[in-house]
Amino acid sequence: MDLKPVVDAINNLSTRLDEYQKETRAELNLLKNSIVPPSPTFKIHQSNIPEPLNLEAEQQPLTKRSSFGNRETTAVSPAPKAGKSQYPDRIILTTYPGNSKVNPIPLNWGAEDAAARGPIVASRHPQSLPLRNAIGAHGGAYSIYRALAVAMGQLDANHKPNLVNTEPVFHVPPNKSWFDPMKIVSMDPWGHLVQEAFGDKLKEGLDLRPTIALTKAHMQLAEIESMVKDGSLKIDGKIVLDKKGQLMVTKGAVEPVWYLPGIAKRFGVDEISLRRALFEDTGGMYPELITRGDLKVFLPPIGGLSIYIFGPPAYISDPTKKLTVRVHDECNGSDVFGSDICTCRPYLIYGIAECVRQAQEGGVGLIVYFRKEGRALGEVTKYLVYNARKRAEGGDTAANYFLRTENVAGVKDMRFQATMPDVLHWLGIQKIDRMISMSNMKYDAIVGSGISILERVEIPPEMLPPDSQVEIDAKIASGYFSATSAKSAEPPNLENIKGRTWDDINH
Ligand SMILES: Nc1nc2c(ncn2[C@@H]2O[C@H](COP(=O)(O)OP(=O)(O)OP(=O)(O)O)[C@@H](O)[C@H]2O)c(=O)[nH]1
Ligand SMILES: [Zn+2]
């Protein structure tokens, strides 16, 4: 028997093993030389951190030829300073609760007054860092842009917002839901009252940031103008201001603040599994999720929500006043750009018009707009799904509508409406007279959270855009509410409900 090939293979393996060991040793040496073993205070000295790449040479202002004509354009950003000069202090790791620098301000989620609850401190500014009691960063996904601004030297790393005159323009007072630690778990009920409730801490120099802002404005939409023109919406001078359909609105923006034990309970998982999944699926971005079990609040890097109120905001929590609500999830393609493959913008507009009508009749209307693009799967996934739908053998049918999304994303929906009602409880809503939605998921979440819905209102058939029949029939077949289809004797054959083909789209 010829053993030569076996011997060669063993030699080969042994050489590769040697090389691997050498590389590993080199890497270990590199690590040893560059990282100081954690001292009792877990400080890393600047001098021990490997020098950052010398970016100066690469960061001369860029001059490039615009593709539109021969105009020379110069990048607006100044040549940035090297990153480390933005942070003259030593890095302080707060990975472990035993670190002597770590002394978080206690948070009592659900406490009955602001002082007892405590402010949310997420800042790593030198003065706030030891008192930090939340994982993550303010601003949701925008924290990354803030980091870029700091890295480029355009924003002082220790900038604190000047909050003078930023207070809410209308009152959302505490209600009993605020004092049940499990009722509001995805936002900070005191988030709009930071300036008032924690003014003393702000004066002391803590970097506290409101996570809710409340303001007012006029708004104008082409469809509302048409409704005023055709007489279906009346000018009243208070809510519909003029023949252009200008609307008076009070509105607010809310950033997510998660109370992890409450989020875990809401989704029926244990807190440890939740923390592990959040750690893993953010690429290990927040190690404190694992190591800092003492920190119960997480500011996730996701979009928040907006509220639009038509009529007096105080009526929202008054059960003697009628309330119309539409909860809407973001669909940029339709909401902003008018794509006709789904019902989103027309349903949103119908919701606004119904809210306005409710307010004109002496009640109040509320739109809640969540940044959960493409059922929280994102727009890239959504457009991949559109392609798969249009290219499918047998065409784009209602029968396979959800299957196409599942094929790409693994699930048909990741909005998980369980935390959606938090904002309704924050506002003090006890019942909804008219709910402008067909979604069983939204309905079940709201009613399951203790808010009753007296009437469900579907989108009028005449408002359905040309290519959206597939979506609406697939939704109704999967459990969405429809008074119209409940009346019809025969359910439609979903194989026969077809959307446009690519050929139709091209012409
Ligand atoms: N992934 C995916 N998302 C879609 C598709 N079509 C629409 N969407 C998204 O579905 C969501 C629709 O949200 P809403 O307008 O609040 O409607 P809904 O929850 O279905 O129910 P209603 O309240 O009855 O309108 C938005 O986030 C859209 O971007 C699709 O084909 N695939
Ligand atoms: Zn849509």
UniProtKB/TrEMBL annotation:
Tell me the CDD domains matching this sequence: GTP_cyclohydro2
Q: Where is the GTP cyclohydrolase II domain?
A: 322-457
Q: Where is this region: Disordered?
A: 60-84, 486-507
Q: Which is an annotated GO molecular function term of this record?
A: GTP cyclohydrolase II activity
Keyword terms of this UniProt record: GTP-binding, Hydrolase, Nucleotide-binding
Biased composition, Basic and acidic residues: where in the chain?
A: 497-507
Q: Name one GO biological process term.
A: riboflavin biosynthetic process
Name the SUPFAM superfamilies on file: RibA-like
Does this UniProt record's set of keywords contain Nucleotide-binding?
Answer: yes
Cleavable signal peptide: none
Q: Which NCBIfam families match?
A: PRK07198.1
Which family does the record assign?
Answer: Belongs to the GTP cyclohydrolase II family.
Q: What is this protein called?
A: Uracil-regulated protein 1
The record lists the organism as: Boothiomyces macroporosus
